[in-house]
Amino acid sequence: MKVALVSDSMSAYGGAERVVEQILAIYPHARLFAVLDLVPPAQRRFLRDREVACSFLQNLPLVSRYYRRLLPLWSLAVEQFDVAEYDLVISSHHSAANGVLTRPGQVHVSYVHSPMRYAWDLQNQYLSEARLNRGPVGFLARRMLHKARIWDYTAAQRPDAIATNSHFVAERIRKVHRRDARVIYPPVSPECFGHCTTKGDFYLSLGRLVPYKRVDLLVRAFSRMPHRRLKVIGDGPEMQKVRRSAGPNVEILGYRPEAEVRRTLAEARAFVFPGVEDFGIAALEAQAAGTPVIAFRGGGLTETVQGPDSPQPTGLFFEEQTEAAIVDAVEAFERSATRFCPEACVANAADFSQAHFRDAFTSFVDEAMAARAEAAGRRSERAPPPALPPAPRQPKPATVLGEVA
Question: Using the 8-state DSSP alphabet, how is residue 224 labeled?
Fold first, then answer.
């Protein structure tokens, strides 16, 4: 069986890239397509020297500096991929990859990390943060996003079957795309993380510095707690904004090698996340390292963190995305820190292993292939019988003055 794996832009070894890594482990001979491949050399190990077939956008000069501004062209780019020779097409989607064009007879399954956040429920937030919510420019931006929603809905009807990373995202897919999706939790590798029974005196934020993760809010909250330390690992377009908000007790570390990230995760007192994440792989990695989680109650983290009411709690939640709510949550954690043991965190993360993901995804694809084969068989049974040869022509009856003789 010939397999094609189509991905959106890849810019770092994040949650979506971890899914790509595991799909390639299931189908090691799959051909990998990507709208853009901008993964830096230090993070390319998951590709295992695999060649990536990229769209025409890859050839633009200095594209890594402005590729997010090319989002309106991603749909056009993904529709140019020629995957006609493959039996199975898998798309790893958060923006455009599920719009790849397939032919009749092919099976197309899509793993959806999220519908287009910026075009649907987070439209106003993105426009406001980009200062595109007013005036003629704002009108043009809204018009562009309106067209993006039309294309996104159309593209979402193309896969034969859809899987996604959480029940939270499955509900969003049902709302905006009118499709049902099977929940297959993304993989984490607990065996790759060690854990410390004696924790350090600092809290940790880990992930891309992008607006919806609200790291700037977290930094401002800790700046109000000079007796608490916060380390921030990650890079992204919000870096300067985060730096401006940081007090002397907040350490902005930027990108760090994987080995240092794992060590820091294991030593942290708690992992703190104030945003709404579709799934939140970093929160699971923290638990795999034996570190509890303090998070806003929303999104996929409510499915992966065991709250204080659980017999074996692995974290706690706060109810509002405000500085005061974060401060209160940190102080509440300090008062009950002994309830969150590293062993419980590690045990919870083990339920989201790479092996579990590979088994679930393989079954999902096999069922989609079987359903397509069954549908093809039913169409064959309903095929009309071969046409009979035409009847011989009969001679016209003789007529006399318009009457039959």
Answer: T
CA-to-CA distance for 51 and 100, rounded, in angstroms? Answer: 19
SS3 24: helix
Give the pLDDT confidence of 225-277 residue by residue, as tens digits. 999 999 999 988 889 999 998 999 999 999 898 889 999 999 999 999 999 98
- Paired tokens of 174: 């049902």
Helix (H, G, I), strand (E, B) or coil at 212: helix
C-alpha 224/C-alpha 314 separation (Å) is 25
- For residue 223, the one-letter residue type is S
Q: Where are the alpha helices (DSSP H) in 79-234?
A: 123-129, 135-156, 167-176, 215-223
Q: Name the 3-class secondary structure at 95.
A: coil
Tokens 């079987």, residue? 370
Span 151-193, pLDDT tens digits: 999 999 999 999 999 999 999 999 999 999 999 999 887 666 7
CB 284 within 8 A of CB 220: no
Copy the structure tokens of residue 111. 């793993």
pLDDT in tens, 298-312: 889 999 999 998 999
Burial class (CB in 10 A: 0-12, 13-18, 19+), 208: middle
Any residues with CB less than 8 A from the CB of 308 and at least 6 apart, and which? Answer: 316, 336, 339
Distance CA 282, CA 272 (A): 10
3-class SS string, 44-65: HHHHCCCCEEECHHHHCCCHHH
Nearest alpha-carbon partner for 340 in 153, 136, 197: 197
Half-sphere exposure of 253 (CA within 13 A, CB side): 15
Are 159 and 91 spatial neighbours (Cβ–Cβ below 8 Å)?
yes
252 has which bridge partners?
Answer: 232
